[in-house]
Amino acid sequence: MTFTLVVLMSVLSQVGFSGSRVALSLYALELGANQFTVGVMIGLYALCPMLLSIVIGKFSDRAAPRLPVIIGSVTMLAGMLLPPLGGGLVTLGGGLVMLGLAAFVLGFSHQIFSIPIEALVGGIDGPDKRARNYAVISMGWSFANVLGPLITGFSIDYMGHVQVFLVLAAFVASPLLILWVKPDLLPTVARHAGTVARGGSVLDLWRIRPLRITIIASGVVGSAQDLFQFYLPVYGHAIGLSASAIGTILSMVAAAAFVIRGVIPFLVKKLTEAEILTSAVFIAALAFTLLPFFVNAYALASIAFALGLGVGCAMPMTMSLLYVLSPPGRIAEAIGLHKTVRNTTHLVVPMFFGSVGAAFGYATVFLSNAAVLAASGLLMRRARIPDTGPRR
């Protein structure tokens, strides 16, 4: 099994998936959709992950990794082809319906593809490489999340709103080509087939205190990132920042995430994964505490970079902890549980803090989120999650 090729498959698929969000939004606006309609369509991406990630995780634990990866890639390809194939419906008023269906299918199929990959990566090249593996693949996702929208924007300008989906379809189909060229890349039997009893409900996973606290802390950090992406433009506009300044500040989070994920393999030589995740939560809390006291673009960009250092290392550390804290044979299910919590916060947090901001002002939004982050950090510290060490 070649780690580089597994990462390449995941990155190429992520380029297409992240680009599809931009392509779908812009095509919907081109067809006359209002902002609310576009928001509903983007929400459809998270609907299946929120409702079905645990089911997908259970399936991934019981199936050979190769099978769900192929199913996810084929279904993503089908979802990407829905807008071009439904082009004739545009004149009949059905174009937006087709885009909504595409968003739903893409959100669903991306989970089928990604959950087994995330569960598999932790075991490649031995337990001492686990944190490195998750750091490298999350760096790849960061790069893909920058490249996908970039490719989409240029493709729309030079080819059109419909044709861009064909370009993105080539990316999500790439894993199928890689598996065709190298059919033995992914295991063709389940990771724990015939060796582990895999019964029990998802509540059994939730009752594992270190696992539960890790999922909660990761969900809080992820919601903090969502809040920043959602609320910084609102705050920036209110204090008179230009659109380019706001965009640059937002980009600092991604830049910092890329940097810190490159450093993680060195950090894990000095600290445990739990200690790194706890520190990340406190760094994010500090960043949110500072935000309402500054209006200068350079200061806000520096704070955004600090926030990126925190939220950037949270994902690989969470994946590594989920891998080692979950019972044997239920790793993908634990990842599915994590994604359920994460996507629930993805839907709820913008609405909740948007209401808080409207009622009490910007400072209340940032400081209350800082308090939630700090409380999560203290919860992790008190949990005393054991040194995860090599996987059993």
Mean pLDDT, nearest integer?
A: 81
Return the CATH topology of the largest domain. Answer: Growth Hormone, Chain: A
N-to-C terminal Cα separation, in Å? 20 Å
What order do the helices and strands follow? HHHHHHHHHHHHH
The number of helical runs is 13
Major sheet attributes: none
Which descriptor suits the 3D outline?
Answer: globular
Strand content: under 5%
CATH-defined architecture of the largest domain: Up-down Bundle
How would you characterize this protein structure?
The protein has 392 residues and is mainly α. The protein folds into 2 domains: 3-181, MFS general substrate transporter like domains (Growth Hormone, Chain: A), CATH 1.20.1250; 202-383, MFS general substrate transporter like domains (Growth Hormone, Chain: A). Helix content is 79%, strand content 0%. The protein contains 13 helices and no strands. It is globular and about 55 Å long.
